[in-house]
Amino acid sequence: MADVTPIILPRIVLRCSSERDMAIRQTAAILPDMSHPIHSAVLIPGDGIGPEVSKATLRIMEAAGAPIRWHEHPAGLAALDQGLDVLPKETVEAIRQHGVALKGPCTTPVGRGFASINVSLRKQLDLYAAVRPVRNLEGVTTRFTGVDLVIIRENTEGLYSGVENEVTPGVVMSMKVATERACTRIARYAFQFAQRRNRRKVTVFHKANIMKMTDGLFLRCAQEVHDREFPDIEYETMIIDAGCMKLVQDPTRFDMLLLENLYGDVVSDLAAALVGGLGVVPGANIGEQQAVFEAVHGSAPDIAGKDIANPLALLMSGVMMLNHLAEQRNDANCRQVAERIKAAYNRALADGQKTRDLGGELGTQAFADAVIARLR
Ligand code: ATP
């Protein structure tokens, strides 16, 4: 929620006008612009590389003047360590209250009966649309140039229903669920997104030739929403195996991809590899009332605590959060800060300031320093 924080200005004794000018300029640089609202947001630092990339992201956002007051809450192993549930009720309530959250990756302990934190959070808050922009970045050389994709993933059903059972010893089943309501809702979200952002085409990846009922329904709903409400946006469908082949042959032929839950998960990582890997793909989980912004990558325990993780994916998720606030709360300042951060990380990358995953040598915090040094 937007609120206004009173700021106590420090007493400064000024001896001459040049000192005064300097003090005014320095004060202007460090104080938030009080003509704009301050937004409250939840921060979940997460597990593994989460705390490191969260720290780097917050330092950059603060240096850029992001008008955010953070409320930190735990989830995952960090919550268990504090004797709390893996996804504490208080954390979910805080997101309900503040409306937006920036979330680091959380580890769900394996084989101890815990439901996935990400899946529970998405279900409890009904964050039905995952939005994942996949774009080439300046200074990051990859096989293809001109990749500019947006992946829209249905976030609440499919094989993530969590309904699994043992039919008889040695025979187990997992239930794939599709509802007309969720399929129609995600299709409408994708086409509305396309319309708002002047995107030209939506491609659905599916396997309706095998899963005739579930993927068949997903496909039918997308087709109906297209024909009824968005006939001017180009629409195509592709069987997912052929679609993946085409995606790695030439990703520039795609504009937006619309996928059910599991396909969206797999194709997001595949697409990330086309633009430099998991370190550079941000994400948003959008619901009617709340939105949670998080990188596509997980907690990467293999590199945790070593100051080598790339904080860009979470930083870019923070930029998406600022743009979301700009759009939802009509706050142009948030958009300006988002642009300032984007320009700074693009300058850093173009100058060869990169973390190891992108072929550079910088550590997590040194990369954050390089971005902060290029904020204008
Ligand atoms: P989780 O179990 O939480 O999903 P994971 O082990 O599956 O985590 P991911 O985080 O999804 O792993 O990433 C797979 C690999 O990609 C990691 O092991 C890591 O080496 C690399 N990776 C992921 N994120 C980053 C990052 N931000 N910076 C650098 N490398 C990363």
Mean pLDDT across every amino acid position = 92
Alpha-carbon distance between the termini? Answer: 27 Å
The CATH topology of the largest domain, please?
A: Isopropylmalate Dehydrogenase
- Rough shape? globular
Strand residue percentage: 15-25%
Q: Give the domain tally.
A: 2
Number of strands: 13
The CATH superfamily of the largest domain is identified as: Isopropylmalate Dehydrogenase
Number of helices: 12
Small-molecule components bound: adenosine-5'-triphosphate
CATH architecture of the largest domain: 3-Layer(aba) Sandwich
Could you estimate the helical fraction of the residues in percent? Answer: 40-55%
- Structural class assignment: alpha/beta
CATH class placement of the largest domain: Alpha Beta
Largest sheet: 11 strands, mixed
What would you say about this model in short?
The protein is α/β, with parallel strands linked by helices and 376 residues long. It contains twelve helices and 13 strands. It has two domains: 36-108 and 115-133 and 277-376, 3-Layer(aba) Sandwich (Isopropylmalate Dehydrogenase), CATH 3.40.718.10; 143-274, Isopropylmalate Dehydrogenase (3-Layer(aba) Sandwich), CATH 3.40.718.10.
Your description of this structure?
This protein is an alpha/beta fold. The chain has two domains: 36-108 and 115-133 and 277-376, Isopropylmalate Dehydrogenase (3-Layer(aba) Sandwich); 143-274, Isopropylmalate Dehydrogenase, CATH 3.40.718.10. The protein is 41% helix and 17% strand. It has helices at residues 17-30, 50-63, 77-81, 89-98, 117-124, 180-196, 214-229, 240-249, 261-274, 312-328, 332-350, 364-373, and strands at 2-3, 38-44, 68-72, 100-103, 129-135, 148-154, 164-168, 171-174, 201-206, 234-239, 256-259, 284-286, 291-294. The strands form two sheets. Strands 1, 2, 3, 4, 5, 6, 9, 10, 11, 12 and 13 form an eleven-stranded mixed sheet that branches. Strands 7-8 form a two-stranded antiparallel ribbon. Residues 1-20 and 22-30 have low confidence and may be disordered. Adenosine-5'-triphosphate binds at residues 49, 105, 107, 278-279, 297-303, 309-310, 313, 357.
